[in-house]
Write a structure and sequence with these properties.
Order of helices and strands: EEEHEEEEEHHEH
Helix content: 10-25%
Shape: globular
Radius of gyration: 13 Å
CATH superfamily: RNA polymerase II/Efflux pump adaptor protein, barrel-sandwich hybrid domain
Number of strands: 9
Strand order of the largest sheet: 1-2-3-9-8-5
Length: 123
């Protein structure tokens, strides 16, 4: 089980967990709930350079289509193929098996703490 209080967050509802120089990135439970049932996920390929704030993927649900923003600069080292094959993982386990991409990065930009993110979404 992921300790969500130890993660970093963005205002675009992504979470980031550092694993050495790699940022594991997904969307929060709040975002997954607001999207509704996720039916399609489009992620960048390994080797893709990403820039913080730029759109790097798409998440489609029964309610809407949302964009995935890169929270960090770096290079995608892995996209979660399990989520592409079974998009419902984003809803079922957004902080675990529903992670989206791993990005090799340097310094993290200013991100939100768990408490700051929960205050942002009114929880």
């Amino acid at each position: 089980m992921t300790d969500v209080t130890a993660l970093h967050y963005t205002e675009e509802h992504e979470w980031i967990r550092l694993d050495g120089d790699t940022a594991v990135i997904g969307i929060t439970d709040y975002a997954a709930e607001k999207l509704g049932d996720v039916v399609y996920v489009d992620l960048p390929n390994a080797g893709t350079a990403v820039t913080a704030g730029a759109v790097v993927g798409e998440i489609e649900s029964t309610k809407s289509v949302g964009e995935l923003f890169a929270p960090v600069d770096g290079e995608v080292v892995e996209a979660n193929q399990a989520v592409v094959d079974s998009p419902e993982l984003v809803n079922a386990d957004p902080f675990g098996d529903g992670w989206l991409i791993k990005v090799r990065t340097g310094d993290l930009p200013k991100l939100l703490t768990h408490d700051e993110y929960r205050a942002l979404v009114g929880e």
